[in-house]
């Protein structure tokens, strides 16, 4: 397995009350952009409050990222900001359920297993970013690209009746 692009190892015995702030550097952002098929990630900052609950550790906070991605319609790059609340639970791998024999509840979907006396908060943040990126995001020129290609919006009336009504309005 390759090394995570955004690794921030947290030792269980070093948990503190203050939130942990993770800011990706230029190389980490470039590697994450490649991993997620983005043109670029201009900034990535996460702030996570870690709360131990026995051997489990709950992480809750926020993620803010400025990403550059290709418009799903025009293919042109555009920049937009992602602001998301994030939450997950780190669970010791000896307590992680056998995925072949379990029915997952909504709260179980955000569990991340770890082994030993530490976990990788950076990779959890990276995975959270990957989950909130919209692969079908449309840039500011999407409508113009649709119009140039002759694609009619779902909102606009179309078909023979719509054309007949439009002709009546012009007269």
UniProtKB/TrEMBL annotation:
Pfam families per the record? Answer: YceD (PF02620)
Q: What is this protein called?
A: DUF177 domain-containing protein
InterPro entries linked to this entry: YceD (IPR003772)
């Amino acid at each position: 397995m390759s090394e995570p692009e955004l690794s921030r190892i947290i030792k269980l015995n070093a948990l503190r009350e203050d939130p942990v702030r993770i800011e990706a550097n230029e190389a980490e952002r470039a590697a994450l952009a490649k991993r997620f098929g983005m043109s670029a990630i201009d900034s990535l900052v996460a702030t996570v409050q870690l709360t131990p609950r026995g051997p489990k550790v709950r992480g809750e906070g926020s993620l803010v990222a400025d990403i550059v991605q290709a418009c799903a319609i025009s293919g042109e790059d555009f920049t937009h900001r992602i602001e998301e609340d994030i939450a997950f639970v780190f669970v010791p791998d000896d307590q992680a359920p056998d995925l072949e024999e379990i029915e997952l509840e909504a709260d179980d979907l955000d569990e991340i297993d770890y082994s030993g006396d530490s976990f990788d908060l950076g990779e959890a943040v990276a995975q959270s970013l990957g989950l909130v990126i919209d692969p079908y995001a449309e840039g500011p020129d999407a409508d113009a690209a649709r119009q140039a290609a002759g694609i009619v919006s779902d909102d606009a009336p179309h078909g023979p009746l719509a054309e007949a009504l439009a002709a009546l309005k012009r007269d």
